[in-house]
Design goal:
CATH class of the largest domain: Alpha Beta
Strand content: 5-15%
Distance between the termini: 77 Å
Structural class: alpha/beta
CATH architecture of the largest domain: 3-Layer(aba) Sandwich
Number of strands: 11
Largest sheet: 9 strands, mixed
Order of helices and strands: HHHHHHHHHEHEHEEHEHEEEEEHEHHH
Number of domains: 3
Radius of gyration: 27 Å
Strand order of the largest sheet: 3-2-1-4-5-7-6-8-11
Helix content: 40-55%
CATH topology of the largest domain: Rossmann fold
Length: 507
């Protein structure tokens, strides 16, 4: 069946799938811009995935004695499986993988799959590979790596994960950030666990490759729900990323209304939408997001006109405008948004707090993102929230574990601790303040603090952080320790002088 291989993860030689794909794609460097790698790889993964699922469904039909139906598209699409014409099947392509016309055959395969499956319209590369002038032998080597993937239903957000990995590699290799943000899986999972999108309309105003929607589906299924109970609405500005989102959702059997690629502020694709759940990771501190005299009287600015120099509060107010009755929203913002008072942002924040929309603020640990080291927090807004006179503050900066030398992840236990704390508070079910970690602060106290929403200002210090040592004793201890250090420093200098003198040099 077309060389189904190991699931994504650690390869036999110890390299991750992502690094193997990067190494293989990187061999195309002479003919290809680094920013194109992700599109080259992900198009092939989609083709492999479609072929695997088709072959699985075909085998099931034959096993069930329905062999006469194996060439009827409806017997595939009814189970959210793409119908793949014979010439586009991965097994067929791999038979020709070492032939010089393989690139043309891959382009033809993608075109035929899109033609047969309306849900993929506009999602797959159009005559893409032939235009890249690739070396066919290097392309064949990349096919071999992709051939080792089995993108099965239990695989996590494969496309989004590889896309995020590649984006981080581009940023590192080019020595600069790409200006795009993709949310780590653990952060997306945390947002889903907090707002619990069981059923209703889910919206993401800057959906990237669709990872928020994928995690929503996984949340529903993990809690024995039905993913058909959720409706997906999203928007993405970048056309290539928009295609990836459509591809990512389609291979998981998720239908979505993503409109067309467009700017959420100036060309809202869902102007009348009132969503039940909103999940987002919008660009941080986006500058020049509107002209000075543009959108000044927009209906979305119910709490104040956000400044031209930073779109953070524009995103917040855009999100609020999409919240339906009893809606919940969870989104990522740079920590500066918690306390800024520039351009009227402090006044907007005060207005949002005073109407009781802010439910919870959670400060996250650093090093979670591939593409930025900016400290971030999660904002959770809620209409008709139970605790109308307070806000829950969570300081989770000490949580997480290093995944590698430079990146941290939140473990399932970390996610559960944060989410369980929030739900206990929200449901008045056994919640208690934990110094240094969480505190339910009354709105009156938030007002006294100038409507600053930085969690560390409210949660205080954990017991082990509290300094109970008397000042005089501390100073005696510190000066004694400093004296020892000075003595060691003097001894080190004397030893260096002695060694230099022995060698015939004198200071």
């Amino acid at each position: 069946m077309g060389g189904k291989g190991k699931t994504a993860g650690k390869a036999a030689e110890g390299k991750s799938l992502e690094s193997r794909l990067w190494d293989s794609a990187n061999k195309l460097r002479g003919n290809l811009e680094a920013g194109e790698y992700k599109h080259v790889v992900l198009g092939l993964i989609c083709l492999k995935y479609a072929g695997d699922r088709f072959e699985e469904q075909r085998a099931k039909l034959i096993a069930a004695g329905r062999e006469r139906y194996i060439d009827l598209p409806e017997f595939y699409t009814k189970d959210s499986v793409f119908f793949v014409p014979e010439e586009a099947r991965w097994s067929k392509l791999m038979e020709s993988a070492k032939q010089p016309d393989i690139i043309l055959k891959v382009d033809s395969a993608l075109a035929s799959i899109e033609r047969e499956n309306s849900v993929l319209k506009g999602a797959l590369p159009d005559n893409y590979y032939s235009r890249l002038n690739l070396d066919f032998s290097q392309f064949a080597a990349l096919l071999d790596v992709v051939n080792g993937i089995c993108a099965s239903d239990d695989e996590q957000d494969l496309i989004g994960r590889i896309y995020e990995y590649f984006l981080g590699k581009f940023a590192l290799s080019e020595g600069k950030m790409k200006g795009e943000y993709y949310t780590p899986k653990c952060v997306v999972k945390l947002i889903a666990e907090m707002i619990e999108p069981f059923r209703g309309k889910i919206y993401d105003p800057c959906c990237g490759s669709g990872g928020m929607f994928v995690q929503s589906k996984k949340f529903v299924e993990a809690h024995n729900g039905n993913s058909k109970d959720i409706s997906i609405y999203g928007q993405e500005y970048t056309a290539t990323t928009y295609k990836l989102a459509k591809m990512n959702l389609a291979i998981r059997g998720l239908s979505a209304n993503l409109g067309v690629p467009a700017n959420s502020f100036s060309n809202d694709q869902h102007p009348t939408l009132k969503a039940d759940f909103i999940m987002a990771n919008q660009p941080f501190n986006q500058k020049a997001w509107r002209a000075e005299n543009e959108l000044t009287d927009d209906y979305r600015w119910a709490f104040g006109v956000p400044p031209v120099g930073n779109a953070n509060y524009g995103w917040i107010e855009h999100i609020i405008s999409k919240m339906g009755q009893n809606a919940k929203a969870g989104f990522v913002l740079a920590n500066g948004s918690l306390s800024t008072d520039q351009g009227g942002e402090g006044e907007i924040r005060r207005n949002i707090v005073e109407v009781g929309l802010v439910d919870c603020i959670a400060a996250l640990p650093g090093q979670l993102f591939y593409t930025t080291q900016i400290p971030v927090s999660l904002w959770f807004l809620r209409r008709n929230k139970p605790n109308t006179d307070s806000i829950l503050f969570i300081d989770a900066r000490k949580l997480g574990e290093m995944e590698d030398r430079t990146h941290k992840v939140l473990s399932d236990a970390d996610i559960a601790r944060i989410a369980d704390t929030y739900h206990a508070w929200s449901r008045s079910d056994g919640y208690a303040d934990v110094p240094g970690f969480c505190r339910s602060a009354p709105l009156s106290e938030v007002a006294e603090n100038g409507f600053v929403l930085t969690p560390s200002r409210y949660v205080g210090l954990s017991p082990e952080e509290e300094d109970s040592e008397p000042f005089e004793e501390k100073m005696q201890r510190l000066t004694s320790e400093l004296s020892v250090l000075f003595e060691r420093d003097a001894e080190a200098k004397a030893e260096i002088c002695r060694q230099l003198e022995r060698a015939g040099f004198k200071l």
